[in-house]
Design goal:
This protein is an alpha/beta fold. It has helices at residues 2-37, 48-60, 68-86, 100-109, 121-129, 149-157, 191-196, 198-204, 216-223, 236-240, 290-300, 332-345, and strands at residues 90-94, 114-118, 135-142, 146-147, 160-169, 173-176, 186-189, 209-212, 229-233, 244-247, 257-265, 276-283, 304-312, 320-328, 349-355. Among the domains are: 173-250, Periplasmic binding protein-like II (D-Maltodextrin-Binding Protein, domain 2, 3-Layer(aba) Sandwich), CATH 3.40.190.10; 268-355, ACT domain (Alpha-Beta Plaits). The strands form 3 sheets. Strands 1, 2, 3, 4, 5 and 11 form a 6-stranded mixed beta sheet that branches. A 5-stranded mixed beta sheet has the order 8-7-9-6-10. A 4-stranded antiparallel beta sheet has the order 13-14-12-15, sandwiched between helices.
């Protein structure tokens, strides 16, 4: 019986080896075809719209034994390897390693890209602006705490442009060198993470001091080197920085999600396209009715606004910048007219990005 099973196992393994050889041959063929496209592309080898289409087509097919998520993960790495054949890609992210931004960067670009941890959001944008990295990943907005103001300010100030947005479900973990939360006197984390766990921390650690850091992963780094300190951070940080998980999923709302922006250096004014989303920032003349004057063109041209936010301009007291996202479907000409009208009604306008 044992001999019969060994023979069956060998037969299956031989078939697997044969399949692997065919897969390798096809992967090399795919890489060769990807390499041929390099000369035909006018800019970067990374095309988020095209890659989204590829993954979307595969997701719609019946995957058989493999789950749709497994197929997406496998093909994400195939796309990453093919990009490396075309041209190496460097990506900066808000670090250290283990942050949510790190997770998004690696999910988006795969393991074939080169990743560079940056201590602040501003450092990520500067690395892209100075061409030390081709791309940067920064947190843009959270469903519970709203916009990340450092990112909004940086998108206006730096010569960068949004080329894609990625959404990630956020789960926060309480971690420490300590094994009991009763021993915790200080909790470190990014201000957004602390705010997202405000009720939990008030109930569980009412006497602990809450200390802000530049990122959740940086908080875990700090907690890894000190006693009586905890960090609110993503789960991978517990392994990276040798910390005990004291509690999991401590965010106050289970539907906690963050939108991240993928940016590249702005070399020209982004072109508005069909079936895209456009993100703009603009200022107002300091007079009555100026906001209405800017917004009325969206109604006139039947353009759907998906977001409107405001921030102090930092240049003049009580002057504000407004951030708007709107959708361009098949109405490209109307969108272009709307944008032209808006530009004429405001002293400052910057297209922050055009993406799908």
């Amino acid at each position: 019986m044992k001999k019969e099973k060994k023979q069956q196992l060998k037969k299956i393994r031989d078939q697997i080896d044969n399949i692997d050889e065919k897969i390798l041959s096809l992967l090399n063929q795919r890489a060769e075809q990807a390499k041929k496209t390099t000369k035909l592309k006018t800019d970067s080898v990374y095309d988020p719209k095209r890659e989204k289409e590829v993954l979307g087509k595969l997701a719609r097919k019946k995957s058989g034994t493999l789950s749709p998520l497994a197929v997406e993960q496998v093909y994400g790495e195939i796309l990453s390897a093919c990009r490396e054949v075309q041209a190496p890609i460097q990506v900066s992210y808000l670090g250290p390693e283990g942050s949510n931004t790190d997770e998004v960067a690696k999910k988006q670009f795969g393991s074939s890209a080169s990743f560079f941890s940056q201590p602040t959001i501003s450092d990520v944008l500067v690395a892209v602006e100075n061409e030390d990295s081709q791309y940067g990943i920064v947190p843009l907005e959270n469903t519970l705490e709203g916009p990340v103001v450092e990112t909004l300010d940086g998108l206006v100030e730096k010569n960068v442009s949004i080329v894609s947005q990625v959404q990630l479900k956020i789960s926060h973990y309480l971690m420490s060198q300590e094994k009991d939360a009763k021993n915790i006197s200080k909790v470190y984390s990014h201000p957004q993470a602390l705010a997202q766990c405000k009720k939990y921390l008030k109930k569980t650690l009412p006497n602990a001091d809450l200390i802000e850091t530049t990122s959740t992963a940086r908080a875990a780094q700090i907690a890894g080197g000190k006693k009586r300190i905890a960090a609110v951070a993503p789960r991978p940080c517990s392994l990276l920085y040798s910390l005990n998980i004291l509690d999991k999923n401590i965010q106050d709302n289970a539907s906690n999600r963050t939108m991240f922006a993928l940016v590249e250096k702005k070399t020209a004014e982004p072109i508005v396209l069909k079936d895209s989303k456009v993100s703009v920032a603009f200022s107002l003349d300091h007079k009555p009715g100026s906001l209405h004057e800017c917004l009325k063109s969206f109604r006139a041209y039947n353009i759907n606004l998906t977001k409107i936010q405001s921030r102090p301009s930092k240049k003049n007291d009580w002057h504000y910048l407004f951030f708007i996202d709107f959708v361009v479907e098949k109405n490209l000409k109307e969108a272009e007219k709307c944008l032209k009208t808006l530009r004429g009604a405001t002293p400052f306008l910057k297209i922050l990005g055009v993406f799908t």
